[in-house]
Structure formats: structure tokens, C-alpha cells
Amino acid sequence: MHATLPLLQASDFPALRRGRLQTLQVNLGYVCNQSCLHCHVNAGPGRKEQMSAAMVDEVLAFVRRSEVTTLDLTGGAPELNPHFRRLVAQARSLGRQVIDRCNLSILSEPGQEGLAEFLAEHQVEIVASLPCYLQENVDTQRGAGTFDASISGLKKLNALGYGVPGSGLMLNLVYNPQGPSLPPPQQALEQDYKAHLREHYAIEFNHLFTITNMPIKRFGSTLISKGQFSEYMQLLKSSFSETNLAQVMCKTLISVDWQGFVYDCDFNQQLELPLRMAGGRSVHLRDLRADELIGHPIVVADHCYGCTAGQGSSCGGALN
Which residue among 58, 112, 234, 308 is the one 20 to 30 A from 28 at the CA level? Predict the structure, then answer.
């Protein structure tokens, strides 16, 4: 796999500083039941990295001592971590919002019986990846049979009340472009998704998040192999929108890897660019105080143009 960090570090991206921490995003491990082309984590069935029970306890300890309002769980497939359900249940008992970044096909995997019901019982917000509403495109990007499994998962969630008005159970979908292009306008694409999924599958959901593919890990390496890396970076830079700087997620979010080390965002985590505190030291979650983050500089490189290009991009979709 081609390394992308050397192509990103000599950057002129504007300096950023942190605000008050609101979201603790935790990567529970890189094990996944899928291997998607656009995956910036390089997750897959062959990965072994998983957060331990002791580290899950550290996450819960940080939640208790901080004012974070949201625990955002990601992977890989976060549900494949054996401590996933304990973490969810205890975070919810502490009154925190919990987001599960679900690939939908995991809901039908052996050993995951009752997962959908568990998520509904604890009122977990689901952010589910569905990179297109057409079967051919999804199976090309994520593997044969993935689309059917995703539709099955969505129907199961709808039956439990997810995405149904008035239920309080939030179901949001995520779109990623198929290749080196920016996502189309989020609002218009959301209406297309809703119309198609309702008409063909009687599926409902709350919102669509459009997320720009980052030029790192598997997707970045593919761009290099095809000779498209420089062209894609030029697209991101030429589409830079300064207004997006005020809303980028790294101002109010930290990303924690499966070992407990802290980063400004999930993308920096994958590039091994840790959050830097006073004196340039990297930090582990057990040693971090949320209030000491305010005003600290954020580690940036050229991949940050992916979050500020066009309508902007974050883990919550478009920024404007």
C-alpha cells in the first residue's frame, strides 16, 4: 500500500485551534466484516486490533469526568468489539448520547443476533453507511451481496421504529462518492435517496450525510496507483471554502484509537498524527483533561482540504 502522509505534510492549510470538547469519538478496533474501497481506516476481516476491556473502562472514566455530550463509536465495525454493548449501556446510563457508526450488514452477521433490538432499547443513534441507493454501485464499492444485506438491515431497523417520525430513534445514512469527486449537494441527494428507498423498498430514514473521501489509507493508495492523487488534491484545494473553517468537527471532537491515544480527528489517527499538548507531547486518554484542550492548535495537513472543500464534510455530513 502506498503511503500518503509524505504527500500531505508540506501543507498551507490554515491554522486551527480547539474550542470546548463536545464529542468523544472512539475507534473500537479495525476488525470489520467488509473491506470497502473508500475506507480510510483500512478495516477488514483480517485485522486484529481491538480495544481491550481495560481501555473501555478508561473511556467510561473520561466520560464521567468530562462534559462530553456525545460518545461516537466507530471502527471497523464497532459492534464486533466484545465490549461494545457494555460500553453503550454504561454511557447511556450516564446520560450521554451514543452514536453507532454501523455498516448495516453487521446486523445479519452470525453472533450479532439481537443487536438491532439492543440499539433500539438504549436509544442509540445509528449512522449507517449506504454509499448509494443502487445495488450495482454499492456492491462494486463494498462487495457482492452487501446491498441486499444493507436493505435487510434497514428494514429491520424500521420495524423497530428507527427512522419513523415520532419514535425518537434516529437513523441517518452516509453517502460517499464512488471515486475522486466531491459529493453532490446534500439536501438534494437526501431527497433522491428518500424517494428511491421509499418507492422500491418501503424504507424510511431521518437524514443523509454526504462525506468526502479522504486521500489517505486505502482510498489514497488507490489514487496513487491510478495516477490520480495530485489531480484529486487539486480538486480539494480549488474547492476550498473558508466559511467551513468555523464548523470543522476537530474544533469540538477528539478521536481515540483502540489503544487509547488521542488525535484531533479520525483522519489524523489513520495518518498517525497525534494530538499535541504543551511541549509537543502526544497524550493518552487516561492523562487528558478536557478543559486543557481549549485554545490548543490542531494538527493539520493537506488532507484537511477534504473537510473544507465545497459544501464541507464532517462525520455529521455537509457543513453548509
Answer: 308
